[in-house]
From TrEMBL:
Presence of keyword Nucleotide-binding: yes
Alphabetically ordered keywords of this record: Chloroplast, GTP-binding, Nucleotide-binding, Plastid
Segments forming domain CP-type G: 28-198
PROSITE patterns: G_CP
A Pfam family reported for this protein in Swiss-Prot or TrEMBL: MMR_HSR1
GO CC field: mitochondrion
Record Gene3D superfamilies: 1.10.1580.10, P-loop containing nucleotide triphosphate hydrolases
Protein name from the UniProt record: CP-type G domain-containing protein
Organism the protein comes from: Adiantum capillus-veneris (Maidenhair fern)
InterPro entries associated with the record: G_CP_dom, GTP-bd, GTP-bd_ortho_bundle_sf, P-loop_NTPase
One Gene Ontology term from the biological process aspect of the record: mitochondrial translation
Molecular-function GO terms, alphabetical: GTP binding; GTPase activity
Length: 387
């Protein structure tokens, strides 16, 4: 299997020095049994994976029994992966002869395409009065969001009120639950809890799963995950691609500030207002309040983070292939981010957790770029040949 983890990340500090990580919450064993028990009643299995980790998001323990059913593999969150690689991944999986589709659960056109593939999967049995589909996959890949999308395609506003619970943290769906997505024939979809394998083979897989949200952040630790993310972004040299967008954003900010100042100047003022203005300006000058960086202004946070990462990477004269150098760079970046985001020193170690959280939040909504964390086997081969 293609690891996709640059060699330098393999030996870094987030790999060592901590107690073994328990990736597998107890409810997943129960869910696995429930899924296996229902399987013989199912006409089509829809296995949902994450487009950013097409391999790593496959539950290996499921592959054997799923491959014996009619199956459609859905790579969801296609909006968050590298769009240039989607056609390559498509070719790669299609060559294996299994039906697959890349979708974005939040896009109606995408869900329509998915439904078309589901109909294809049910070919020859559409004359049955009732058909049953089961949606399975690891946590947080968007199983419930997909079901809601399918449900919404064929229902009135009132009926749409029945929704599968969707949430940004893994482990939202805890029970098997049915939803009707079609009449004549009646097609029901069974939502299932996300299930991981009990033993994650290696830490790289675990970190990739955690980074994409399949494992609760607290299991790995936000700071550790944030550091892993930084090392990953550096290894792909992502910050260099932000140069133009940073300059454009700064120019926009300057323009807006100037406009605001001009409007303010043009306003007629009473003597009292002028006095108040002068008093406030003096007070601000003597006692400058630190500007708080909040998520309400996400664009500004993105800009600060991108700038901090670009500046630190540009000034870095070490070797990105050397794990000690990379660790040193990540350390500098963590400090620079903490300073730029104005995360108080008084918070102590908790502050590093906040830095990690901010990074993870931005990454997961695509604001630090769209990446495939897994690498195509043929590309991995090329990488080996090149080094
Ligand atoms: N950007 C993006 N976000 C998505 C997509 N599909 C789902 N999400 C988001 O991913 C998160 C998880 O979605 P869920 O549908 O709850 O995932 P799940 O697989 O049912 O998760 P569990 O029930 O915990 O196993 C939510 O915040 C969704 O809004 C997608 O295609 N693109
Ligand atoms: Mg769910």
């Amino acid at each position: 299997m293609a690891s996709g983890v640059p060699k330098v990340l393999m030996k870094m500090a987030f790999k060592t020095g901590t107690a073994p990580i328990n990736w597998f919450p107890g409810h997943m064993a129960t869910a696995t049994r429930a899924i296996r028990e229902r399987l013989r009643l199912i006409d089509l299995v829809v296995e949902v994976r994450d487009s950013r980790i097409p391999y790593t998001s496959a539950n290996e323990d499921f592959q054997d029994f799923l491959s014996r059913k009619r199956r459609l593999i859905v790579f969801n969150k296609s909006d968050l992966t590298n769009p240039n690689l989607v056609p390559k991944w498509k070719d790669h999986f299609e060559a294996k002869g299994e039906p697959i589709v890349f979708v974005n659960a939040h896009c109606k056109e995408s869900i329509k395409l998915l439904f078309k593939e589901i109909r294809k999967g049910l070919q020859n049995i559409m004359d049955r009065p009732t058909l049953l589909i089961m949606v399975v996959g690891i946590p947080n890949v968007g199983k419930s969001a997909i079901i809601n999308g399918l449900h919404a395609l064929s229902h009135t506003e009132y009926e749409k009120l029945k929704k599968a619970a969707v949430g940004s943290l893994p482990g939202v769906t805890l029970n098997l639950q049915g939803f009707k997505i079609h009449s004549k024939p009646s097609i029901f979809v069974l939502d299932t809890p996300g299930v991981l394998v009990p033993n994650i083979r290696d830490l790289d897989m675990g970190l990739k799963l955690a980074l994409t949200g399949a494992i609760k952040d607290s299991v790995v630790g936000e700071e550790r995950l944030g550091r892993y993310l930084l090392a990953f972004l550096n290894s792909r040299k992502a910050p260099f691609k932000w140069q133009k967008s940073i300059e454009a954003a700064r120019a926009r900010e300057r323009e807006e500030k100037e406009k605001k100042e001009q409007v303010e100047k043009a306003k007629p003022k009473t003597l009292l207002e002028l006095k108040k203005q002068a008093y406030l300006a003096e007070k601000r000058a003597n006692n400058p309040k630190p500007e708080r960086v909040s998520d309400h202004n996400k664009d500004h946070v993105v800009l600060l983070v991108r700038e901090a990462l670009l500046n630190t990477l540009s000034n870095f004269d070490g070797d990105l292939e050397d794990e000690k150098d990379m660790e040193a760079l990540v350390d500098i970046q963590m400090h620079e981010l903490r300073r730029a985001l104005k995360i108080s020193i008084e918070l102590g170690d908790k502050g590093w957790e906040f830095v990690g959280k901010k990074l993870l939040n931005l990454f997961r909504v695509g604001r630090l770029g769209n990446f495939a964390l897994d690498v195509l086997p043929e590309d991995a081969q090329n990488q080996i040949q090149c080094t």
